[in-house]
Amino acid sequence: MIELLDYDSFRKKVLFSYLKQFIQNVRSLVELYREKKPEIEEIIEQANKDQKEWESVIKIFNQRFLVPFKVELQNQKDILLNKDAAQFRFIFSDDNQDVNVQKEDLQKHLSGGEKRALYILQILFEIEARKRSDKPQLLVFDDISDSFDYRNKHAIIEYLNDLQECKQFKLLVMMHNFDFYRTLASRLDIPRKQIKMIRKNDAREIIFEDGEYLKSVIKCIRDSEQDKDFFALIPFVRNLIEYASFQADKNNNYIKLTSCLHMKKDTKDIQIQDISKIFDSVFGTERKKKKIEEDNSKLYFETIYNIAEKIYNDKNYNHIELQNKLIFSIVIRLKSEEWMLNKLNQEFKSKRNQTRELYDAIKKELSDDEKRIIQKVLMITPENIHINSFMFEPILDISLDHLYTCFEEIKNLN
Fold first, then answer.
1. Residue 7 belongs to some domain of the structure
2. Buried-most residue among 59, 68, 220, 373 (CB within 10 A)?
3. Rounded to whole angstroms, how far apart are CA atoms 404 and 414?
4. pTM for this one?
5. What is the rounded distance in angstroms from the CA atom of residue 343 to the CA atom of residue 73?
6. Containing structural domain, residue 286
């Protein structure tokens, strides 16, 4: 009881009495510590290096990516010591206020693109760590720009450019985004022979085709002398007129080109020379003329159908060319609308979406197979024909063989 008067001293005696029973184990632990001390110091040194690498990665992320939060490293030296993955502190900025939030809570308030940027942070460190190795390494990026906004897409491009300068890295970048494809090729100055477009054949074999359309697509088609490019140019010119005209629906040239893309009363009467004049008004009379324009009296509807048949019957057709897909999409729509108008057999005036409105007007009279075919037309053609110079994903993704099948089915409708 007297010893309890000095509680701290009593507590030490009790503890030492317990430890004395394990004195040999304590000595072994001390010896092990002394033996492993250099290794522990090496681990701590490595942890400090990794901390610096993480800080470098976070700096890259915070500087380059436009997101509504900042990132800080939370568990610094114990990343390696405790075998923990790096843990981050997220500082969310809203209304000029900074709030520390958990990753799970942060993700609830981020857009898809911002979540994608957060994911990129996870792999940046792995890539930066691999820079220490002298061994050649292949880095594969699959649709890395998907869901990003415009600025963050360019942040990715700048980072890929940095990686390209590391001699030990070989990059394989796969994408569906046509704008990203062209920008990446330009910014990274990639040799043309290293740029490929990929497709699958009927046997599901992967075919590599030479990459195309790295420069202005409209200029490429405009300056070509091929007949099919004359028709492929129609959707582009129609869009240009639409953008430049205050009231496109009252512009005669716009109305005429609309009749080239939808079956109207005058569609079968339009001549090549009518379209040539519109092209001249947009590009100037000094533009390069196509061979087909030498005989301006040819009828548009018959000629574009014959061009589609020619491509269809060519066993060596180019599966990648946008022009082939555009022409098939236009012909498929025109032939389907012609068939539906014949089925309807009465006066019809479209208000907005002619193909859809025609289908709605006659669908009760169609067989299940006919409905399936027209529904396929509705899904395929709008995205392929209403096209501009920036976004080509829909028409690039769709197989030319798929368009062939749809073309066959439309032709065989009774």
1. no
2. 373
3. 18
4. 0.71
5. 68
6. 217-412
